[in-house]
Please model this.
Amino acid sequence: MTKLSPQTLLGSLPTSFETGPEWLRALRGRAAATLREQGLPTKRTEAWRFTPVRSVANAEFSPEQGSAPSLTSPVPEGVTARSLRQVLEAEPTLLEGRLDLGGPPTHFAALNTALFSDGLWIDVPAGVAIETPIELVHAIPTSSERGVAYPRVLITVADGAELTLIETYAGEDAGQLTNSVLEVDLGRNAKMSHARVHENAGLQVGRVDVRQDADSNYRSTVVTLGGALLRFDVRCLLQGKGAECQLDGAYLIDGEDLVDHHTLVEHQASHCRSRQSYRGIVSGNGTAVFDGIVVVHRDAQKTEAHQENRNLLLSETATVHTKPHLEIDADDVVCSHGVTVGSLDEDQLFYLRARGIPEDLAHSMLTYAFLESIVEGVSHEPTRARLREALLTRIPHGDRVRGFT
Model:
């Protein structure tokens, strides 16, 4: 078999798409056309101006690595988990209209749409409530060549159904690129709890699109434990009356790592509620970016939406760029947003020091508590315990803090 030469990301786009159902070929073709017209983002692209991806856009990568995630837990009874490739070959009409449910993709999401070769479709039928979480691991292997993977996951949770999903992105190779897309379609009164853990030392770009029907509930907890370059976007479309979403995030950054979280919540129907709470600790020469947008459309009366981003800087060379903001076109709403960037609370430090706790240990205890409040929102206890341990191993004196938890 002929070995394909490394190419740039845009250079790997084919001139035409010859396989798959007609609707998929058209979808891929539109994504490729958008990329050729717009290119990948640069510093002039407003939403990407703090995330330098020029080195990624200009680099050459070997062809796609294996991109299908691994199921590390049994599929619960009543749920189906199928390969996207197999469904597209055998029953392609089942997926028509379900890929790119968030609208026409751009930039890296468009690249995934054009080039993904396989993925996973998890379907929860109406009325099925799954108590046991489904766990997925996206592990990028170490390689002597720079490679790229395009993981694709589709989650459909029908009316009245419930699902807990736990994802882990892992990898030790700083030269590998993961460009992932996950799509969630929630029916009426459907519920989903989604925990996502980033433990990938390499380059990572990820996007989650969520479409919500009436009275549905989506809760996301994202824990980012560093990364040479990570850009993660979450977009929730509250399309049905009474839909709710909660987006929580915790990030711990050191060294030269750069982590960029973007959120977009669109209130398109009335009586919907959303809440966002992201917390980050940045030290060394690390850089954190948070950009959160809430859009309230004209018909979305009785909206309630709140945003919060809090950051701790533990070194003089750490950097935070944060911009939570609201775009409101309705008059009967309750909305708020706030941001803090600072150091540890001196009163809390004094309280601990007054009780005989050494200063360095007091710093570590407060640092751990700052992020643990987000981790506690994860509904699955074994995952909570794993995340607590991950935080303790990454903060100074974590072994001593463990004795106080």
Summary: Residues 22-38 form the longest helix (17 residues). The mean pLDDT is 91. The helical segments are 22-38, 54-58, 84-90, 107-115, 346-353, 359-375, 381-394, 398-402.
